[in-house]
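Weekly modeling sync, notes
Attendees: S.R. (lead), two postdocs, one rotation student

Agenda item 3: backlog of single-chain predictions. S.R. asked that every request posted to the team notebook include the full sequence so nobody has to chase files. The rotation student volunteered to paste the first one in as an example of the format we agreed on. Action items at the bottom.

Example entry:
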Amino acid sequence: MKFWIILAFGAVLAASGTPKVTYSKSFPGSVPAYVEIEVASDGKAVYRETPNDPAPIAYQMPEDDTKAIFELCEKLERFKRPLDANLNVAFMGKKTFKYENGAEKSETTFNYSQDEDAKLLLDRFEKVSETQSLYFDLERTIRFDKLGVQKSLLQVEAALDRKRLIGGERFLPLLDRIAKNETYMHMARERAAALADFFRKDKAKAE
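Predicted structure, as returned to the notebook:
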């Protein structure tokens, strides 16, 4: 089961007139084979793993990351120009950037781009996808594989060290659950508590 934060504002995001940037990638054979991430200018975001995902994940994007996404969108002229490099390179997935604001809609699709701003925007969305995958893995091990929790926490920690996490505070409910439950290994409880402390301090600093 996929849960981050309540899903209630997912429908609101779709229906509102708030400016929105959407990234999607279709790459058959990869895991997941499809990813779609919507981000509104107020930070409300939705993550999907199919175009008509019956259980989309709604969450709040950190303010700095939201601002960076929309700044890059503006630098890329709201995706009104082509971004594909049209080079003979390996297929790396069909990627689409889309901008919507009321009646204004524009999008561009590419396999590989040499545009530096496009690369930066792609990397930000890839970080969101990686963060979501780590969350799913930690949630799964908590429920079904207590001995695997330590490995999942190490993966979260490694991603944090490599600056690949966006919105680490979303892990807090899971981390607190591990830290306070004596049925998990002592090392896992200590690591979960340390990560939770870091994310809380980082959130307080941002606020």
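Discussion: group reviewed the output briefly. Confidence is low (pLDDT under 50) at residues 1-15.
Action items: rotation student to repeat for the remaining queue; S.R. to check formatting next week.
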